[in-house]
């Protein structure tokens, strides 16, 4: 049998190589947008605590170079955004909403059924609600049996007693022997009618007061009985900041526990501040303790995509490089990568690796609570 000539074999190899290369390029083009394509701008409103993440130069570069996306991000309170009318959303040409709560997602879906044909929602980031305190207030609450220290971590193990026996009854820090702290015991937060970190505290308080175990989401009937108490807790705080980001910074810069001995916020806010403080982090941590309510409520961060471009944004934000940046620079735990976050990355903060959490309430309870926070007349 006559063998093929060397020239034929060389040609055959060249043809095969061209075909394999073309197939690889075709597969790559179906996975990622063409590098030559102009970036698509996605316009999104979201919680203020994500502003710095979305302004991060490396995140912007990854979105632009790897996914051909640019994101026009503007901060807006979670419940303000999900209660925009369909006409307002379309008039503002929004491609997505990015609230800081699964409850806010539930409110949006209850109020806009079928309004956006390309709708898709997916949670990308998460951060547990915590209570920030200082060394004096923490020590007093440990002695009172309300807070328990486990190793280097602190847990609020009797939230109901803290709220009903101390906050509602206007108990004082002097009465429980807190060194150098004065005045009534309250749990400060941002305005729950405007900001999700404050509203998450209200949801947590509602579950503690309205249910027998604090681990259950209250029914609407249970919630209505507890709403007057929730309003009393709200009124005890006085003036509140409007956004999570500015509220936490204000708490730190105006004295920490000497401004408000207990301040509710997101876990990621302290992590972000520690990263930004660099060598000054040890001084910051000397005056701040992280108290984990047991159970707490996770603040989820679902992207509500209203069109195909925003769907691309959801997929892009799952990029492992972006998820790592979200954790290591801004303290957001991943909602899409199991085991991705090592609390050992931030020694000295006292972060909990395992957290017991209660579910957030359903949309009807959320709306009743939100209405109560906005107008005391609706709480009865």
The low-confidence parts are 24-32
If you consult CATH, what is the topology of the largest domain? D-Maltodextrin-Binding Protein, domain 2
User: Structural class, from secondary structure content?
Assistant: alpha/beta
Which architecture of the largest domain does the CATH hierarchy give at level 2? Answer: 3-Layer(aba) Sandwich
CATH class of the largest domain: Alpha Beta
| Mass-distribution shape | globular
Percent helix among the residues?
40-55%
CATH superfamily of the largest domain: Periplasmic binding protein-like II
Summed up, the helix count is 16
How many structural domains in the coordinates?
Answer: 2
- Please describe the biggest sheet, giving its number of strands, its sense, and whether it closes into a barrel: 10 strands, mixed
Rg calc: 25 Å
Descriptive tags:
45% helix, 380 residues, alpha/beta, ten-stranded mixed beta sheet, D-Maltodextrin-Binding Protein, domain 2, 2 domains
Q: How would you summarize the topology of this molecule?
A:
Blueprint: H1 6-31, E1 40-46, H2 51-55, H3 57-67, E2 69-75, H4 78-82, H5 86-91, E3 96-98, H6 102-111, E4 120-133, H7 135-143, E5 147-150, E6 153-156, H8 159-167, H9 196-210, H10 220-236, H11 244-253, E7 262-266, H12 267-277, H13 281-285, E8 289-293, E9 298-305, H14 308-317, H15 320-328, E10 333-334, H16 363-374
Parallel strand pairs: 1-2, 1-3, 6-8
Antiparallel strand pairs: 3-9, 4-7, 4-8, 4-9, 4-10, 5-6
Helix pairs in contact: 6-16, 9-10, 10-16
What features would you describe in this structure?
With 380 residues, this protein is an alpha/beta fold. It folds into two domains: 40-126 and 300-345, Periplasmic binding protein-like II (D-Maltodextrin-Binding Protein, domain 2), CATH 3.40.190.10; 128-297 and 350-378, 3-Layer(aba) Sandwich (D-Maltodextrin-Binding Protein, domain 2). It has 16 helices and ten strands. Helix 6 packs across helix 16. It is globular. It starts with 5 loop residues before the first helix and ends in a 6-residue tail after the last helix.
């Amino acid at each position: 049998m006559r063998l093929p000539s060397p020239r034929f074999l060389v040609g055959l190899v060249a043809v095969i190589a061209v075909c394999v290369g073309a197939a690889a390029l075709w597969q790559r083009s179906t996975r990622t947008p063409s590098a030559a394509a102009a970036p698509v701008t996605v316009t999104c409103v979201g919680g203020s605590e994500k502003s710095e993440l979305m302004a991060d130069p490396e995140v912007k570069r990854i979105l632009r170079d790897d996914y051909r996306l640019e994101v026009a991000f503007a901060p807006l309170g979670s419940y303000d955004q999900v209660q925009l009318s369909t006409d307002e959303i379309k008039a503002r040409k929004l491609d997505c909403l990015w609230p800081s709560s699964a409850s806010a997602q539930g409110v949006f879906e209850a109020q806009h059924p079928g309004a956006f044909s390309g709708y898709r929602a997916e949670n990308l980031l998460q951060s547990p609600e915590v209570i920030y305190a200082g060394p004096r207030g923490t020590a007093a609450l440990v002695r009172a049996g309300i807070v328990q220290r486990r190793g280097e971590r602190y847990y609020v193990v009797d939230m109901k007693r803290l709220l009903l026996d101390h906050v509602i009854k206007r108990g004082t820090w002097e009465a429980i022997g807190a060194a150098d702290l004065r005045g009534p015991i309250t749990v400060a937060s941002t305005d729950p009618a405007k900001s999700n970190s404050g509203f998450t505290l209200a949801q947590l308080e509602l579950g503690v007061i309205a249910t027998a175990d604090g681990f259950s989401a209250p029914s609407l009937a249970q919630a209505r009985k507890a709403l007057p108490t929730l309003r009393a807790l709200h009124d005890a705080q006085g003036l509140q900041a409007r956004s999570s980001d500015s509220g936490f910074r204000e708490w730190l810069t105006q004295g920490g526990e000497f401004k408000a001995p207990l301040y509710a916020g997101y876990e990621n806010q302290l992590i972000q501040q520690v990263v930004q403080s660099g060598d000054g982090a040890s001084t910051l941590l000397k005056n701040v303790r992280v108290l984990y309510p047991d159970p707490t409520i996770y603040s989820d961060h679902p992207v509500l995509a209203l069109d195909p471009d925003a769907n691309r944004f959801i997929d892009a934000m799952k990029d492992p490089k972006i998820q790592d940046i979200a954790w290591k620079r801004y303290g957001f735990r991943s909602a899409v990568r199991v085991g991705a976050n090592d609390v050992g990355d931030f020694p000295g903060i006292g972060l909990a690796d395992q957290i017991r959490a209660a579910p957030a309430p359903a949309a009807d309870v959320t709306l009743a609570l939100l209405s109560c926070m906005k107008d005391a007349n609706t709480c009865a």
